[in-house]
Design goal:
Blueprint: H1 3-15, H2 30-43, H3 71-97, H4 102-115, H5 118-139, H6 146-162, H7 167-179, H8 186-205, H9 210-230, H10 239-261, H11 272-294, H12 301-315, H13 323-343, H14 348-351, H15 355-369, H16 371-389, H17 393-399, E1 403-407, H18 411-416, E2 420-421, H19 435-446, E3 453-456, H20 472-481, E4 482-487, E5 492-496, E6 505-512, E7 518-519, E8 527-535, H21 539-547, E9 555-558, E10 561-564, H22 567-570, E11 574-577, E12 597-600, E13 604-612
Length: about 625
């Protein structure tokens, strides 16, 4: 066997050290819910774009294959292994381009795979490693054949259908490098054409309609873009993470400057355009991972610091630098590694345990080859989920075989009880980040083809949001098209009814400053009160949101307590008072119509509305 094939085979084996640790079992919860949805959507025959517009696409099931999904589990495990191998091969290839011998490259690849947060960020890590290889190949003038450009374009398309925020980043990096290739645009055409053909090919192979592709792309992009403002969240006591971020970013620039001053620069044959292109590609990768880690900073910053560690390991020319830049780069790697371990939920012991991946790989292999092993695991997970939920049998009987949406996010409940799952387009309500997404969700509830039932689970809104303005159009559609048929301390079941709301009546519009009281007027036993808030937005805030995230999220102040609002949907009339005729319990409306006045935490234009609600069953 040629040495290159031997190396590739060994790297593929080493890749299994990065095997994700989520166990492939369906469990209750917000994150387990959307992970299950990637497989469950295919099992239920849902169409991406038409039925759902999640930011994970029709290949998203490879991120977290679920045992109970039948063939989708087998395909998912195979896809997961393939992504791990691509990640490992790219890391190994980058190290070899930098001049490291095979033994050192194998060892470094194994260590990075063992430490990698593949359970949460596998698609992002593939972008990082593959993008780094593209940068290094351009920097060192390593020639790619047309087949390599085709493969890179196809990989970018595949990642796009796994998670839409990843593939386009890799595609941009590939196109920048291809544009600098000296073969009269053939590399550019080959990679772009491969992206388009692979994207459509996968879409059709996964039984999706070509006509729905545009809808899915728009919806998934809306989720990705809306995420920045809607999920911008800090961590108490986490200022040190920003300090570490600045140290790593500024220190990396320092390494580059010191190394070039010491004579370690680009090869003499590299043109100025190629130097600029390489810097642009590295900047894009850096921006991508800063956004991944620091938009929502409750644990997500771990992926940035691991990415920084990988970038330092792969991009720094360790063998050609003098002692000073080597020490500086080594210190930055230590900072990134320590920050990663401090933030990472898995913990140091779990990350450096080489036995765990082997056990998990063996377990996955056993479940692939044994139908009985899959059935046993699925049954155990099902029983465990039912025990955790404790959904009353009365509710199960009322739903029967009727299509149901589980609000706000417990997708696993529909799987555990064998319900006919008919979700809103964003799958989970909190993802209605923009007016487009909110309206898609509202239209799904209003449509006669939508779910017959909506089951409200015992969860409040996430991130301290005001419950009724989290998806304002969605909640109005729920109030106007559904009536309560069961409620207890934990659960509420709504059933579709004929439309029961009157027209939306606009009352007054007022200009308010931060903290100014806004009286709630016009509500009674059968009249709902709604408000629309257009927050002031400065140029600085807009620029900050474009580069990273808004400096802060707007708040609605109710009874002296602040609740986060999504600025993009705040201008859609949202409920603040729900009348008794709506039949909503405290589980969905904790204020139960008791609000007399509200306020906002910044200047805004506020419009008040009312709407009558018929209480008929």
């Amino acid at each position: 066997m040629p040495q290159r094939l031997k190396s590739a085979a060994l790297v593929a084996i080493v890749a299994m050290l990065g095997w994700p640790s989520h166990g492939h079992l369906a469990t209750p919860g917000l994150d387990p819910g959307w992970r299950l949805a990637g497989s469950f959507a295919h099992v239920r025959g849902l169409r991406y774009g038409d039925d759902i517009v999640f930011n994970f696409g029709p290949l998203g099931f490879v991120v977290a294959p679920i045992v109970g999904a039948g063939r989708w589990f087998i395909l998912g495990v195979a896809g997961q292994a393939a992504l791990l191998i691509v990640f490992a091969l790219a890391v190994f290839g980058a190290l070899r381009i930098q001049g490291h011998d095979r033994r050192a490259a194998f060892l470094a690849t194994a260590v990075l795979l063992l430490l990698a947060p593949t359970s949460t960020s596998l698609p992002e890590l593939v972008v990082l490693a593959t993008g780094t290889v593209v940068v290094l190949a351009r920097w060192h003038r390593v020639a790619f054949g047309l087949s390599a450009w085709v493969g890179l374009g196809g990989l970018a398309a595949t990642l796009t259908l796994v998670k839409i925020s990843t593939g386009p980043v890799l595609l941009l990096i590939v196109l920048v490098s291809a544009a600098l290739d000296g073969r009269r645009g053939r590399a550019l055409v080959a990679s772009a054409a491969a992206f388009a053909v692979t994207l459509v090919g996968w879409w059709l192979a996964l039984a999706q309609s070509v006509g729905d592709l545009g809808q899915w792309v728009r919806g998934a992009l809306e989720i990705g873009l809306g995420h920045t403002a809607a999920m911008s969240l800090g961590t108490p006591g986490g200022a040190w993470q920003y300090a570490a971020l600045l140290v790593v970013l500024l220190g990396s620039i320092g390494v580059f400057v010191v190394a070039r001053a010491g004579g370690v620069g680009s090869p003499s044959a590299v043109r100025r355009a190629e130097v600029v292109g390489c810097l642009a590609m590295v900047t894009l990768l850096g921006w991508f991972f800063v956004k991944q880690g620091f938009v929502r900073r409750d644990g997500h910053a771990a992926v940035f610091f691991f990415a920084a560690l990988v970038a330092l390991a792969l991009l720094v020319p360790w063998r050609r630098m003098s002692r000073v830049p080597v020490r500086l780069a080594g210190g930055l790697a230590v900072v990134a590694l320590v920050a990663y371990f401090v933030i990472d939920d898995a913990g140091l012991v779990a990350r450096v345990n080489p036995v765990r991946p082997g056990v998990d790989v063996a377990q996955a292999a056993r479940r692939i080859v044994s139908t009985g092993a899959r059935a046993d695991a699925d049954l155990g997970a099902n029983r465990s989920a039912r025990a955790d939920y404790g959904l009353p049998q009365t509710v199960v009987d009322l739903i029967g075989d009727g299509p149901v949406h589980v609000d706000p996010w417990e997708v696993t409940l529909a799987w555990a009880y064998g319900l006919d799952w008919r979700p809103i387009p964003t799958l989970q309500g909190y993802l209605g980040y923009t007016p487009y997404l909110d309206e898609r969700n509202a239209d799904a509830l209003s449509s006669p083809d939508g779910p017959r039932y909506v089951l409200r689970t015992p969860h409040g809104p996430i991130d301290h949001r005001f419950p009724l303005t989290e998806g304002p159009a969605y909640h109005v559609a729920l109030m106007c098209n559904f009536t309560s048929v069961y409620v207890d301390a934990d659960w509420q079941l709504f059933e579709r009814t004929s439309p029961r709301c009157g027209p939306l009546v606009e009352h007054e519009t007022v200009r308010v400053g931060a903290g100014d009281p806004i009286p709630i007027v016009g509500g009674d036993e059968r009249t709902a009160v709604l408000i629309a808030v257009e927050f002031d937005r400065s140029l600085l805030t807009s620029l900050a949101a474009l580069v990273l995230k808004p400096p802060s999220s707007p708040d609605l102040i109710v009874d002296g307590r602040s609740h986060r609002m999504i600025a993009a949907t705040a201008s859609t009339p949202g409920l603040v008072v729900v009348p008794p005729t709506a039949g909503w319990g405290s589980r969905i409306d904790p204020f139960a119509g008791t609000i007399d006045e509200v306020a906002v935490d910044r200047g805004a234009r506020v419009t008040m509305y009312t709407m009558t609600v018929d209480g008929r069953e």
